[in-house]
């Protein structure tokens, strides 16, 4: 077994994706490949079945709110080649909709439900897209950045450390 | 004339000793056989991922205790490694060894709990569980003398560990390491060829290696199905690359195999600690890390092998004092992906055993 897991660079993965599914890669950077949503399932199936990339193991799937859009991040791994790489897909903020990859990886089933529940991204083609943690009828999707928006555009949290402003109220932190 | 049957819906849980917490499974039965199963979770959902976005990077460490409260050390470790990777912090060697020692002690404690309750689910009521608790208790004593807590340890820090070892630790650990191999031998004698366990665990809840990989299984679930995948070997963190140990695997992928894999992993953990203790170097136990840590803008995914499986953290930083996104890849939740696959077609009694063999921790499932 290799000493450490190899992180495949974005361009390397994109090259193989482009050869099989032309025009699928939307944006390629060092860390990840962003795939066009309409080609996502096709790409996912290719990645799983491709012998060189062999992404049979979906390590993690999660959604990130980027204010103007949502991002779904797929961490894929190959247990036989011991490498991993990152795939991303972008969904519009107004009506986030992405195709489901649950038909490709069984492990995506619960994680897509989690992303739907907490971030409100609908996954088209998911067998049972229901809330996972919260109950049906819960207002909104709490992991969104605008959930519980505060007046004046403030976001929760201090946004600073108490020690940074001298004389401010706040627990003094340990020096060491 | 065939007897007509009607499907019967039965709720298993949420309050039921076999569900290990507040986990509910709604099964549809045809006679004694399960025809459909649906899991209903969220009873212990504490919205940690949202709460974490309002706290500083260091303030989030206690959350990781309260996810998998039976393996708090590995939760701590995974999070701290992720932040260190994001912020580019070097950890002193002594801290790395201490992390390995505590993570492996935690693995023994967690597996003792997992195997004890699994045997409990099989019908060997309580006796093996309390045998297992005997060793777990000694490990928790060691935790207590080091960091003051038994379950929610909050021991790891970004850049190292919170406290160095107290003087009483090494004699206590030595005594434990000396008696553990005998104790494990005792359990194996008591349980491995136990009629109850063989009858209830063999060929129950079988998971093929292909399904296990496709369903993102990890930890003993994956290894029980015969896939020799252990992140400690495949992608070594801390000082695991200096340790010698083996990856136990099962052959049939049934509940009994998962049990034996956990049993053997305890032996391997003892082996790792035996190697780590003499190598433990002197020096600082924690790097000098500013408490007002602001990791540079970026994202990171870091994973380790917890007793339950692959626990990973996906952290996104916008350069501020709070995490922008704090996502946990929790092994307990994802190991449930194949639950329906495994229990449909079984009897209710076998479904309980199957659920017990997954070794979920509801704190980590719901977060």
Description:
The complex is a heterodimer of chains A (176) and B (367). Chain A contains three helices and eight strands; from the N terminus they run βαββαββββαβ. Chain A has helices at 10-20, 40-49, 108-119; strands spanning 6-7, 25-28, 33-35, 57-65, 69-78, 83-92, 97-99, 122-124. In chain A, strand 7 (97-99), helix 3 (108-119) and strand 8 form a beta-alpha-beta unit. Chain A is globular and about 45 Å long. Chain A starts with 5 loop residues before the first strand and ends in a 52-residue tail after the last strand. The model of chain A is unreliable at 168-176 (pLDDT under 50). In chain B, 47% of the residues lie in helices and 12% in strands. In chain B, helix 4 packs antiparallel against helix 11 (255-279) and helix 6 runs antiparallel to helix 11. In chain B, 54% of the residues are buried. In chain B, strand 6 (298-305) and strand 7 (310-317) form a beta hairpin. Chain B is built from 15 helices and eight strands. Chain B has a single domain (42-366), classed as Orthogonal Bundle (Cytochrome-c3 Hydrogenase, chain B). Chain B is α+β, with helices and mostly antiparallel strands. The model of chain B has no long low-confidence stretch (mean pLDDT 88). Chains A and B meet through strand 4 and helix 3 of A and helix 8, strand 6, strand 7 and strand 8 of B.
Beta strand % of chain B: 5-15%
Element pattern of chain A in H and E: EHEEHEEEEHE
Question: What ranges of chain B have pLDDT less than 50 throughout 5 or more consecutive residues?
Answer: none
Assembly state (oligomeric): heterodimer
Could you state the CATH homologous superfamily of chain B? Cytochrome-c3 Hydrogenase, chain B
| Helical/strand content category of chain B | alpha+beta
Largest sheet of chain A: 6 strands, mixed
Radius of gyration of chain B, in angstroms, nearest whole number: 21 Å
Total number of domains of chain B: 1
What gap, in angstroms, lies between the N and C termini of chain B? 51 Å
Q: Could you give the order of strands across the largest sheet of chain B?
A: 1-2-3
How are helices and strands ordered from N to C of chain B? EEEHHHHHEEHHHHHHEEEHHHH
Structural class category of chain A? alpha/beta
């Amino acid at each position: 077994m290799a000493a450490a897991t190899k992180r495949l660079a974005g361009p390397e993965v994109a090259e193989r994706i482009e050869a099989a599914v032309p025009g699928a890669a939307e944006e390629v950077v060092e860390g990840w490949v962003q795939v066009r949503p309409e080609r996502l399932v096709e790409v996912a199936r290719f990645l799983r079945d491709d012998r060189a990339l062999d992404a049979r193991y979906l390590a993690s799937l999660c959604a990130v709110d980027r204010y103007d859009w949502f991002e779904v991040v797929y961490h894929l791994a190959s247990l036989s080649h011991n490498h991993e790489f990152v795939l991303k897909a972008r969904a519009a903020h107004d009506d986030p909709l992405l195709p489901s990859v649950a038909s490709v990886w069984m492990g995506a089933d619960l994680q897509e439900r989690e992303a739907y529940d907490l971030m409100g991204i609908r996954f088209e083609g998911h067998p049972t897209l229901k809330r996972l943690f919260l109950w049906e009828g819960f207002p909104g999707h709490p992991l969104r950045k605008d959930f519980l928006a505060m007046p004046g555009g403030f976001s929760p949290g201090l946004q600073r450390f108490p020690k940074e402003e001298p004389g401010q109220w706040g627990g003094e932190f340990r020096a060491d | 004339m065939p007897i007509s049957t009607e499907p019967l819906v039965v709720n298993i849980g949420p309050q039921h000793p076999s569900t290990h917490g507040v986990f509910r499974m709604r099964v549809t039965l045809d006679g004694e056989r399960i025809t459909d199963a649906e899991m209903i979770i969220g009873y212990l959902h504490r919205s940690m991922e949202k709460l974490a976005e309002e706290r500083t990077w260091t303030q989030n460490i206690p959350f990781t205790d309260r996810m998998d409260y039976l393996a708090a050390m590995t939760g701590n470790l995974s999070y701290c490694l992720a932040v260190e990777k994001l912020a580019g912090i070097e950890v002193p060697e002594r801290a790395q060894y201490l992390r390995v020692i505590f993570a492996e002690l935690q693995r023994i404690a967690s597996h003792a709990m997992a195997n004890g309750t699994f045997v409990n689910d099989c019908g060997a009521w309580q006796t093996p569980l309390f045998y297992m608790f005997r060793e777990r208790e000694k490990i928790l004593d060691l935790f207590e003398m080091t960091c003051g807590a038994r379950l929610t340890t909050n021991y790891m820090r970004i850049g190292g560990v919170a406290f160095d070892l107290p003087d009483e630790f090494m004699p206590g650990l030595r005594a434990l390491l000396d008696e553990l191999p005998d104790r494990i031998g005792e359990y194996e004698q008591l349980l491995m060829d136990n009629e109850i366990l063989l009858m209830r665990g063999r060929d129950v809840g079988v998971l093929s290696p292909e399904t296990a990989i496709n369903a993102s299984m990890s930890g003993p679930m994956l290894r029980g199905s015969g896939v020799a995948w252990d992140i400690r070997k495949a992608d070594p963190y801390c000082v695991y690359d200096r340790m010698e140990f083996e990856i136990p695997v099962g052959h049939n992928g049934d509940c009994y195999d998962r049990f034996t894999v956990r049993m053997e992993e305890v032996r391997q953990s003892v082996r790792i600690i035996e190697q780590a203790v003499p190598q433990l170097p002197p020096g600082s136990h924690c790097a000098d890390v500013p408490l007002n840590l602001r990791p540079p803008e970026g994202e990171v995914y870091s994973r380790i092998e917890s007793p339950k499986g692959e626990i990973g953290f996906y952290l996104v930083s916008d350069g501020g004092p709070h995490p922008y996104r704090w996502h946990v890849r929790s092994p307990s939740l994802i190991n449930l992906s194949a639950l329906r696959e495994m229990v449909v077609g079984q009897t209710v009694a076998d479904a309980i055993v199957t659920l017990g063999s997954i070794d979920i921790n509801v704190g980590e499932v719901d977060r």
